[in-house]
Specification:
83 residues; alpha+beta; GMP Synthetase, Chain A, domain 3; 2 helices; DUF2498; YciN_sf; Protein yciN
Length: 83
């Protein structure tokens, strides 16, 4: 069975995504989606990855990556970006 996705504008989607982030048990202070784009039907979220001074990932980087991956999985099944 194919599920139809609904159109959503970028601002509304980011607000919804950030609400989900704040409510998630793995939320870290400062974790926020600041940009989203759609690639081949998948919503790709971006934001602060908490890199160190050399631009290398930290322990928080993994948590952010996993959160954005979670959002992509959950929200791509429901929405597509309406530009």
């Amino acid at each position: 069975m194919q599920v139809k996705t609904q159109p959503i504008d970028r601002e509304t989607l980011l607000a919804h995504a950030n609400k989900l982030i704040r409510e998630h048990e793995d939320y870290l202070a400062g974790m926020e989606a600041t940009h989203v784009e759609q690639k081949n039907g998948v919503l790709v979220f971006q934001g602060n990855y908490f890199l160190d001074e050399q631009g290398l990932p930290t322990a928080k980087s993994t948590a952010v990556f996993n959160m954005f991956k979670h959002l992509a999985h959950q929200l791509s099944e429901k929405y597509y970006l309406q530009d």
